[in-house]
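Morning!

This is the sequence you dropped in the shared folder:
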Amino acid sequence: MSILSNRAKGLKPSPTLAINAKAKAMQAQGIRVVSFGAGEPDFDTPENIKRAAITSIEEGFTKYTAVGGIDELKDAVIQKFQRDNQLTYKRSQILISCGGKHSFYNLAQPL
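The structure's back. C-alpha cells below.
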C-alpha cells in the first residue's frame, strides 16, 4: 500500500528542467541557444536591489503583501514601462507575482 496520494503518484519530471538541461548541453557543444527553460537570471542581483531588500528586512517589512503586489512596486513597474518602452499602464493592469509559471498555473486552475 502506497502512502502517496494519487496526485503525487501522477507527478512527472519537469519539462522545463528537461529543456534547461538540453539547452545547457547544446551550449557546452558551442551551439548558440536562446533557452526557454528555467527562468534563472544569468546575472547577479543588482546592488541597489540587494541593499533595498536588506533595508526592508531590517525595517521590519517581513510580512505577506497584497496578493497582486504592493502599490509602490506597481508604480515602479509602471514608471519603467513608461520610461523604457513608452507604454502607459494603470495599477489595475499590473500584477506582481513570484514568476511566470506560477502566474500561468493560477490562470489555468479555474479553466
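Headline: The mean pLDDT is 90.

More detail when I'm at my desk.
O.
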